[in-house]
Design a protein that fits this description.
This protein has 2 domains: 41 residues, N-terminal domain of TfIIb, CATH 2.20.25.10; 54 residues, SH3 type barrels (Roll). The strands form 4 sheets. A 3-stranded antiparallel β-sheet has the order 1-2-3. β2 and β3 form a beta hairpin. It has 1 helix and 11 strands. The chain is mainly beta. This is Alkylphosphonate utilization protein. Belongs to the YjdM family. It holds the Pfam family Zn_Ribbon_YjdM.
């Protein structure tokens, strides 16, 4: 017996198949199996070297980053501990010592 993926809309595990569609009985969301596979592949976030990142990792900046709205610059080699991965354009949410909360792009960091 194969296990079906949870609903992408409400995360319910009660999904069922109806022909080529997967259906959630709780929220009535319908999707195809290929959509579920592509969504899982899109959620993988990689650093500048192609290493997969996870919540709680420590990363290092590989480029000087100018911060909009501030005269400060984040320098190459700055370590960022305990990152949190989020969706969107800036996919890393973190707190940088001496600077504060930041959102970073994964293309400017490498896993430490």
């Amino acid at each position: 017996m194969t296990t079906l993926p949870p609903c992408p809309a409400c995360s319910s595990s009660l999904t069922y198949e109806d022909g080529p569609l997967l259906i959630c009985p709780e929220c009535a969301h319908e999707w195809t199996a290929s959509e579920a596979e592509s969504a899982e592949a899109a959620e993988i976030i990689r650093d500048a070297n192609g290493v997969v990142l996870a919540d709680g990792d420590t990363v290092t900046l590989i480029k000087d980053l100018k911060v909009k709205g501030s005269s400060q610059t984040l320098k190459v080699g700055t370590r960022v501990k305990n990152i949190r991965l989020v969706g969107g354009d800036h996919d890393i949410d973190c707190r940088i010592d001496g600077f504060g909360a930041m959102k970073l792009k994964s293309e400017f960091v490498r896993k430490a």
